[in-house]
Amino acid sequence: xxxxxxxxxxxxxxxxxxxxxxxxxxxxxxxxxxxxxxxxxxxxxxxxxxxxxxxxxxxxxxxxxxxxxxxxxxxxxxxxxx
Amino acid sequence: xxxxxxxxxxxxxxxxxxxxxxxxxxxxxxxxxxxxxxxxxxxxxxxxxxxxxxxxxxxxxxxxxxxxxxxxxxxxxxxxxxxxxxxxxxxxxxxxxxxxxxxxxxxxxxxxxxxxxxxxxxxxxxxxxxxxxxxxxxxxxxxxxxxxxxxxxxxxxxxxxxxxxxxxxxxxxxxxxxxxxxxxxxxxxxxxxxxxxxxxxxxxxxxxxxxxxxxxxxxxxxxxxxxxxxxxxxxxxxxxxxxxxxxxxxxxxxxxxxxxxxxxxxxxxxxxxxxxxxxxxxxxxxx
Lengths: 82, 287
Hints:
B: 7 strands
């Protein structure tokens, strides 16, 4: 059963592009809606909200530091059983 | 109102927080803004305590105390004697260990209990405190009646909690998903919430909505302590999909993912955080 109306593969596709493509980041900062449309992804409200939050983090940290944060988090053990 | 039997409800919440205990201990708690938000809220609450309580050190209860970060702040800042109450045994144990490490265990103790049936005698407390946790409590009328019973006549109730925000209209599905993912009771609108507090016999002396402020404090805390936001955790979990599913199963993976998506709800107005300070009827005005 899908728990939310968020598709993680869609989110990861977007995030991967944003972290690796400077031009895409620039268009994301300039016009987030147009940048999202350029990927031809049909996004739900919940996905848009999550990507807005990702965009805020991208602005706050910059792509390298944000990628580093994600990599650090990947090293954390699974939550269950810590 | 039907209420899940306490053993089932306790188990449901315990199952949830058992999973997150390592994460909670990394963060020193689970409420938005962490200790930074607690300290600011306490600044607003302290003037409403009686002079006797301020000077002698109040007797306080920290309800749904988690690992007890707020309990320790109350003890340190007010010289309070605090009992923390939580329905999750693992959290109460972790709170006790932390208090011992912080050497505040002389003033702070923790007990496993249901806040709808407080294990505290009537008229014993100067302050009942809670942060971002009553959202798990299904019967808020009963909760606040219990708070009223446990307080002295001039006692103070101070809490923060989650409610639908100013931009919640049309976001009902998102809110329902959020409530389900975090095992919350349906969240009342702020005005309805205040009515429930008044109906239990309290006089409200302060309310505020602080989601944006607490999210800002949240960012400050996470940056200072070097921990990730929930959105970063979401991305990491999604990248670990295959290994998480093989280790814990698809349901666990999807539930975890669903819980990581809510930071933005508190920034875009889908959800808000209310602050409430209320006096037991017959109380006194702030200085």
